[in-house]
Design goal:
Blueprint: H1 2-6, H2 8-23, E1 44-47, E2 50-56, E3 65-70, H3 75-90, E4 95-100, H4 104-114, E5 120-124, H5 128-133, E6 140-144, E7 150-155, H6 160-180
Length: about 180
Amino acid sequence: MKKLVLFIPLVLFLGMGVFLYQGLFLNPQKLDSALEGKPVPAFQLERLETPGEMLTQADLKGEVSLINVWATWCPACKYEHPFLMMLARKNILPIYGVNYRDERGPAIRELSREGDPYALNIFDKDGRLGLDLGVYGAPESFIVDHNGIIRFRYAGPVDSNVWSETLYPMIQQLQAEAKQDGV
């Protein structure tokens, strides 16, 4: 019996090893979102560019949109920014920014310098909205339908491959559904 007890740490170690080994093959961009199929969480936060002007989830309803969580401290956000600018110029859908755990001054300066692809930019200094969205880190993007329901979450920078292979086909489908609904 005493020899059997000596094998317990080995069994625990092997079990833990198998669990961690499986984690090596997970794709962080394919993480499930508990909010898919649910409305954008309720919030009341300031507009980045206009302190005191409050925005709520109601401001994001009406058409299919992309919510993009970004920050000036995020290198991947800088990588995706030119692509977001191109999308904004094409006017395919409104892009709403959530400036996540950032400082207002540097964020406004960066948008002035690099361009502002966002129809609205929500200042989420403390990360409350990001937490409610289930954000793991910036950048993350959410496709939202015309009723304000989150349909898809993508973790990582949006580029032409992600756009054409994943996001745009969903957006086209949701826009067609919105037209059928008379929006």
